[in-house]
């Protein structure tokens, strides 16, 4: 990483001036920095552990209710409770919040398997896709994500509600890093559940990050559902 400060820039300028070529060298230097920044911008797209974003916080308060509308018009209501979130009317159900982007390649690849998982556990699990870090409407999501990747589970319309839920989730689980897509959490009875960490094999992890096989998710789900 290159860090340019006022102090080292002045030293650089003095050194170059002593060589009698300050204008040419500074011009080359600035063009070099510009090229690096442009390259970083284009190379920072989706990977297996996905795109980092730093949102401005907008968490829900205890007792707040939030109604989500899917890209196909269905509605679900969620309630903020102490330490978590529940689905109104199905407070004991398992909820999987899948924070994704239509631009995200791992998100696209896993979508058909997530659809199969939702169908298999339809009465016990609610899978909610939260489109994030992109300004796209429901038509775009349907045409560029839902239809081509068979992602016909509940995908919420892109709105500030998605951000509020995401901010609440990351605060609840004390997630210390920048958000990476795809990013999932699992709740049961308003409590965040421990899930398998395929990257570092850590204990007490309450999120999936990046490309995680649905076989891993299903194994965790079965364990979670067995606990009364």
Describe this structure in words.
With 228 residues, the protein is of the alpha+beta class. It has two domains: 38 residues; 162 residues, Glutaredoxin, CATH 3.40.30. Helix content is 38%, strand content 19%. The chain has six helices and nine strands, in the order H-H-E-E-E-E-H-E-H-E-H-E-E-E-H. The strands form two sheets. Strands 4, 5, 6, 7, 8 and 9 form a six-stranded mixed β-sheet that branches. A three-stranded antiparallel β-sheet has the order 1-2-3, with helices on one face. Helix 4 links the parallel strand 5 and strand 6. Helix 1 crosses helix 2. The protein starts with 5 loop residues before the first helix and ends with a helix. The relative contact order is 0.16. The N terminus is likely disordered.
Key traits:
about 230 residues, 9 strands, three-stranded antiparallel beta sheet, disordered N terminus, alpha+beta, Glutaredoxin, 6 helices, 2 domains
Report a brief summary of the structure:
Helices cover 38% and strands 19% of the residues. With 228 residues, the protein is an alpha+beta fold.
Oligomer: single chain
Output the helix-strand order. Answer: HHEEEEHEHEHEEEH
Biggest pleated sheet = 6 strands, mixed
What's the level 1 CATH class of the largest domain? Alpha Beta
- What's the architecture of the largest domain in CATH terms? 3-Layer(aba) Sandwich
CA radius of gyration:
22 Å
Mean pLDDT: 81
Helical percentage: 25-40%
């Amino acid at each position: 990483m290159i860090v340019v400060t006022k102090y080292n820039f002045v030293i650089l300028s003095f050194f170059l001036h002593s060589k009698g070529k300050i204008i040419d060298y500074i011009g080359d230097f600035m063009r070099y920095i510009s090229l690096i920044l442009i390259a970083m911008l284009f190379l920072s797209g989706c990977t297996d552990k996905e795109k980092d974003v730093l949102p401005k916080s907008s968490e829900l308060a205890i007792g707040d209710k939030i109604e989500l509308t899917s890209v196909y018009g269905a509605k679900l209501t969620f309630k903020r409770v102490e330490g978590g979130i529940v689905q109104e009317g199905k407070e004991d159900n398992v909820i999987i919040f899948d924070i994704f982007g239509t631009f995200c390649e791992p998100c696209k690849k896993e979508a058909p398997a997530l659809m199969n998982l939702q169908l298999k556990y339809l009465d016990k699990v609610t899978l909610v896709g939260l489109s994030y870090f992109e300004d796209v409407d429901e038509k775009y999501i349907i045409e560029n994500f839902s239809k081509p990747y068979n992602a016909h589970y509940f995908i919420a319309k892109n709105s500030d509600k998605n951000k509020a839920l995401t901010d609440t989730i990351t605060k609840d689980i004390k997630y210390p890093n920048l958000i990476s897509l795809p990013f999932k959490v699992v709740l049961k009875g308003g409590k965040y559940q421990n899930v398998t960490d395929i990257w570092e094999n850590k204990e007490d992890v309450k999120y999936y990050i990046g490309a995680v096989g649905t076989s891993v998710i299903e194994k965790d789900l079965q364990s979670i559902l067995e606990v009364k």
